[in-house]
Description:
Blueprint: H1 4-17, H2 27-40, H3 95-106, H4 110-115, E1 118-122, E2 125-127, E3 133-137, H5 142-147, H6 154-165, E4 174-177, E5 181-183, H7 197-214, E6 218-222, H8 224-231, H9 237-240, E7 244-247, E8 250-255, H10 268-284, H11 291-295
Helix pairs in contact: 3-7
The site of uracil (URA) has 12 residues, from helix 6.
Amino acid sequence: MIRPVDAIVEFLKAQEAEGVKSVYLDESARELLRQLHRQNAKPRKTPDAPAKAAPAPPRENPASRFAPSPSPVPAAARPTATPAPDLIVPDSGTAAEKIAALKAQAKGWPPAVALKSLRETMVFSCGNPEADLMLIGEAPGYEEEKLGEPFVGPAGQKLTEILRAMRLDRKDVYISNIVKFRPATPRQTTNNRKPTPAEMASCLPFIRAEVAIVRPKCIIALGGTACEGLLGLQGPVGSMRGSWHDFAGIPVRVTYHPAYLLHGQAALTDKRMIWEDMLAVMEKLGMPIDDKQRQFFLPK
Ligand code: URA
């Protein structure tokens, strides 16, 4: 039988391996540690202080007491009967440490696993957790699952090109997805599918927490699925572009998914539409825009 103290050590080692540098102990966790210490301490044999009987071992899982302070993030919409664990968002540490703590919890996230329609490998996010700009897509695909990083396949390469045109590098921005696992299909090879509303709902606590940690100045929702997951909007992306939306107080610009530029010969007008969305974002962020950039993808 695993001893409570071993469970604690195992839990802390796993957190450390994920890059978490500190954990918050609330008063009940501290009391539990005191009890364990008293239990494990050798009785001091002094004539006037007889060793006390050890207190009964705690019945709850001690590792769960090491929760950083309660999450400010509301629990996810719950698509299944499986009780969703509350996501723990550390209230101290750097943004990178907080994102690492979320990532550790995303592995085997019970509400996602319970659906049995998502694959096992978890792909979280990449880039700068203190970025002014956050980009959100739908879910990892074949390439992303293989490399463990969002937007690294053909659509990701388009996204990198778009960022470069904005004079940004991938590491200057924070890139994530609504769903953290590749949606499964029967006899799946390299094919990908759009996540279902239940799959999006199962992972929504993560994107909420990521936004709360990164607090970007602006978010770009990439494609209709990201709009649906993030903003609850359905319909053609064309009808959602061209204005500012709001997610948790952060301005959101909607644009076409970069994969839209992969199908056939993307028309110059399609490229220009996406580019105009990027110009609006650059203005919002107060980025310099030169004349050449303003003219990109305009007919000559
Ligand atoms: N499409 C997405 O929406 N996200 C990825 O990470 C890759 C492709």
